[in-house]
Design a protein that fits this description.
The complex is a heterodimer.
Chain A (H helix, E strand, L loop, with lengths): L2 E5 L4 H5 L6 E10 L2 H12 L12 E3 L4 E5 L2 E6 L9 H11 L3 E4 L5 H10 L2 E4 L5 H6 L1 E8 L9 E16 L6 H11 L1 H7 L5
Parallel strand pairs in A: 1-2, 2-3, 3-6, 6-7
Antiparallel strand pairs in A: 2-9, 4-5, 7-9, 8-9
Helix pairs in contact in A: 2-3, 3-4
Chain B lengths: L2 H18 L3 H13 L3 H20 L9 E9 L8 H15 L25 E7 L4 E8 L1 H4 L3 E5 L4 H16 L7 E9 L1 H11 L11 H16 L13 E11 L4 E8 L6 E5 L5 E3 L6
Parallel strand pairs in B: 1-2, 5-6
Antiparallel strand pairs in B: 1-3, 3-8, 4-7, 5-7, 8-9
Helix pairs in contact in B: 1-4, 2-3
Chain lengths: ~200, ~290
Amino acid sequence: MAVFYLKTPLSEGDMRGLKVGDTVYVTGTLITARDQAHKRALEFLREGKKLPVNLEGLVVFHCGPIVKMEDGKWKVVAAGPTTSTRMEPLEGDFITALGVRLIIGKGGMGPKTAEAIKTFGAAYTAFTGGAAVLAATMIRGVKGVEWLDLGMPEALWILEVEDFGPLTVAMDSHGNNLYAEVMRRTEKDKERIYQRIGYTK
Amino acid sequence: MGIEDTVERVAVDLLRLATTKLPKDVKEALQRAYREEESEIGKIQLETILSNVELAEKTGTPICQDTGTIIFYVKAGAQAKNLGEIAEALRNATKIATEAVPLRPNAVNPFTQKNTGDNTGRLIPFIHWEIVSGDSIEVTAFPKGGGSENVCTLGMLTPEQGVKGLKKFVVDAVIRAGAMPCPPTIVGVGVGGGSDNAMKLAKAALLRPLDQPNPDLELAKMEEELREAANMTEIGPMGLGGKFTVLGVNIEWAHRHPASYPVGVAFQCWAARRASARLYSDGTVEYLTHEVK
């Protein structure tokens, strides 16, 4: 379980070097995107329209932050990860078509994303759910915001981050999935757990 | 100044306290989990959680960006004055706190998907009323996060499945929830009543502090048994593996219909936010969950 300090733009090589259980700290540009932003981005792609921001080699953060306007400048108050599975139907295309290398979220994702991560050379990392204030301290500034009409949580926030982490690699480009491993172990242990509560079939 | 003004002022305080400062029992349970966690990744998660909690407290910033759906539990003394004004006062307090803390606007119309922008809306904030004797009013602010809400579940078991079935249902719910509710969680279990009451009891069970076991010794034992079983899953902090999947299991119950065996299971993420205060008729306020200078 190694520790990596990475900078955007991230390369395929950066990602192929990561394995589940590794810890990553990332510096550079990070974009927040939740369900609505993913949906709109893919609509843009289908219609051949250009996205307001080029995501190649960047980091997508599943997050609906609390942002406040202070002296004419946006300031991120709290920015923890949201549940990633909601983005599962869209993430695969999002990664391969837009060139995103690193996903930050919580809870893990499904087979479509796993496939895109493997073929394209990307990684899914977990940031501790709820650790929103700590996350905000690692955000150096708001570079911009797009699609604010979707509402504060759903907009694309373009953030400058420094040593953003600790991020735990939970899905890697070698086909490993830490959440799935944990759940497989739990399934295998189910009979023993049922015994503890006196439940027998 | 009527009691409604005090209620409004205190409710803003409670929302601020709840969203920025964990109650002592929750913080202590997380610290213990950190000390005892054996998984390296699990320990990193708990360490991050604890630094985040410290930082939130120090800076007066919401612990989590999801400041939840705003829920209040009110125990209204039957002799308290102006009870009819309390709902409006709590609504105003929610709007004020949304600006002042700030809280994330979390009230969305389910048909138009429009966010009201101020955390109020139809039946939001939701108020659970209880009429009690006396002339004081107890208000609990309970901002409930969405991630843990999404894995709450109701089982209409058969009486034949009974207690064994209920325990299995709780363990299965923990396994099915996996990483989703931001473990280590608090699990509230509501048994009996009807479908509505089981869920209501399950959620109210989340309000009981972790250092207060069930006053019923048999149920206290069952809570312990369920806590151990839930932690045997080794789902661990944030679902990344480890010893601490739950911090505690709290059970509440009601008598059931002879043909039904409802079981509600409610989840509360590690950011178990709640704050209570009692307002007396002479205008004094006593904060019950947090120290307030």
